[in-house]
User: Fold this.
Amino acid sequence: MNIAVHTFGRLRAGRDEPEVAEFANAVPAVFALAERSEGFLWRADASVSAEAQADRDAYSTEADVAVTLSVWQDVERLRHYVYNTLHGRFYRRKSEWFLPPGQPMMVLWNVEEDVRPTFAEAHERLDHLRQHGPSAFAFDWATAADFEKR
Assistant:
């Protein structure tokens, strides 16, 4: 069993605007680091896959939205990447580039080996977490230990 993670954030400005340039310019390096990280298995990369781009666009085509979708071996390795790498340095500064969310903007869920979730599924999981709170269907960092299947 693996862990899928989806993030959704609304930027303070469009991706091409100076207010978010430092964040936008770092995205390729942060994604490349993820792909080299222990425990990383897959991420939806709309820049190289027409199918992933269409799936992402069906979810949101707004210029001020940043979304990610990836699969990891387990929460522990994902957490290490999120907080203890270059990603963590940018994560700690998220309020500089993203509007305050007011609701969950990240969701985790269990996926079978070799499953590659879609943005549509990720959106459904995030909405479920927002509406119903953490469960085995959709959970967060605080409840990952309760719901992660190993």
